[in-house]
Amino acid sequence: MHDSILRGCLRAALAICLALPATAAEEGRGPVTNLPLPRFVSLKASEGNVRRGPSLSHRIDWVYKRRDLPLEITAEYGHWRRVRDRDGVGGWIHYSLLSGVRTALVEADEVALMTSPDASGRPVAKAQRGVIGRLGECGPDWCQMRADGYRGWVRKDALWGVGADEVLD
C-alpha cells in the first residue's frame, strides 16, 4: 500500500515539475550568475583540471595547460562551470580558474592581421592556426585582436572564441 502511495506522489511531483515555467538555464541564462548561456571566457590559470562532474570528488578527465585558452561555458552549478573547447570536448571546471577576458583561437591555417576591418587594409602580421590572441572590438564580420605584440583586425569566421552574431565594444 505504501509503495502505491509513494508512486502516486512521485507521479504528482513529476507532473508539477513538468508544468512549471522554464528555468533560467532553459531561457539562455545561467542559474547562478544570470549571465547568458552559452558564453565565452578564457582560462585564467596556466593549468586547469577538467572534471567529470561539478565537485572535487569527481574524477579529473584531463588538464588544460594553456593560459588564455578560450572556452565556452554551457552550464553552471554552484562554483562550477561546464565548459567545452574548440574541439567540442568538455567537462566541469572551478569558476576561479576562468576569466571574463575574451580571447580567440585562430582556426584558419594562416590569417593576416589587417590595419582596418576590411580586406582593403594593409597586413600587419600573420598568425598561424592555434595562435591565441586577446580580443578587442568585434563587429559583424571582423574582430580586433592582439597576439605576440601585434594588433590588427581578423575576419571573425577565422576565429574560435567569439559568436558569429556577437558584437563586442
Concise account of the structure shown:
The model is unreliable at 1-25 (pLDDT under 50).
Q: What's the topology here?
A:
Blueprint: H1 2-19, E1 39-43, E2 48-51, E3 60-64, E4 70-77, E5 80-84, E6 90-94, E7 98-99, E8 103-106, E9 110-114, E10 123-128, E11 132-138, E12 142-147, E13 150-155, E14 159-160
Antiparallel strand pairs: 1-4, 1-7, 2-3, 4-5, 5-6, 8-11, 8-14, 9-10, 11-12, 12-13
InterPro entries: DUF1058
Keywords: Signal
Organism: Oceaniovalibus guishaninsula JLT2003
Describe the overall structure:
- This protein is mainly β.
- It has 2 domains: 23-101, SH3 type barrels, CATH 2.30.30; 104-160, SH3 Domains (SH3 type barrels, Roll).
- 11% of the residues lie in helices and 41% in strands.
- Strands 6-5-4-1-7 form a 5-stranded antiparallel β-sheet, with no helix packed on it. It has a 5-stranded antiparallel β-sheet with strand order 13-12-11-8-14, with no helix packed on it. A two-stranded antiparallel ribbon has the order 2-3.
- A hairpin with a 5-residue loop joins strand 5 (80-84) and strand 6 (90-94).
- The longest helix has 18 residues, at 2-19.
- Mean pLDDT is 88; it is low at 1-25.
